[in-house]
Amino acid sequence: MSERSERIARVLREGLSASYVEVEDESHLHAGHAGAKSGGGHFRAVIVSERFEGLSRVAAQRVVFGVLGELMTSEIHAFAMSTFTPSSWSERGAG
Amino acid sequence: MPLEAAIRDRIQQLVDGTPVLLFMKGTRSQPQCGFSAQVVGALESHGAEYQTLDVLADPELREGIKAFSEWPTVPQLYIQGEFIGGCDIITEMDASGELRHALERAGS
Question: B73 and A79: CB-CB below 8 Å?
Fold first, then answer.
């Protein structure tokens, strides 16, 4: 994990009471791409939280964007994510 | 940032008046972002009829669509006036078959 991805993971863990968070910094894959010039990084995250229980995918991702707040306009240029509830995560066999 | 009524009305008319509408960076033949390219690829793979709008060519739309959808990133897909999601959600829906169903329901 990069320092930035660790910081983002911490914000997600605390903001979502997440039981599992993994944030991959993929910025190096996009170096030189127009959007990367802004200084914001590319990240890919897996997030497991009870807060997603009963939410549509759109609603779950809105919750995540809400927790990330202004990081979305500063540190983060692109944020790909998969959201799971604890039960959907264990069904996936990855828990 | 509050969304000006004129921009909100413009976007509402766009999403209501277009069965399948993709807000993206670049055009379908020349996407300017990998995530936009991925969604175009998914729509193309279903032979979908869809319209695209290039937010890079329209700064008002670029900021406006984020506020309108309460979604901070582009691409964004609308089907029959409903916000479907961004690249991750479209990719998941493509894999699960939901995207094809949604496109069929829209007659696309």
Answer: yes
Most B CBs within 10 A among A47, A61, A84, hence the mutation to make, goes to: A61
CATH number at residue B42: 3.40.30.10
- Domain span at residue A54? 3-91
A36 pLDDT band, cuts 50/70/90, is: low
Whether the CB-CB separation of A24 and A30 falls below 8 Å is answered with: no
Question: Domain total for chain A?
Answer: 1
Identify each DSSP E strand in chain B by its residue range.
Answer: 20-24, 51-54, 76-79, 82-85
CATH number at residue A56: 3.30.300.90
Cα of first residue to Cα of last residue in chain A, in angstroms, is 20
Q: What is the pLDDT of residue A95?
A: 45
Contacts with A42 (C-beta within 8 Å, 6 or more apart), sequence order: A25, A26, A27, A29, A30, A36, A77, A78, A79, A80
Q: What is the pTM of this model?
A: 0.90
Collect all residues with Cβ–Cβ distance below 8 Å to B89 and sequence separation of at least 6. A57, A58, A61
Q: How many domains does chain B have?
A: 1
Which amino acid is present at A3? E
DSSP, residue by residue, B62-77: HHHHHHHHT--SS-EE
Domain extent for B31? 5-105
Quote the minimal CA–CA distance from A34 to chain B in Å.
Answer: 8
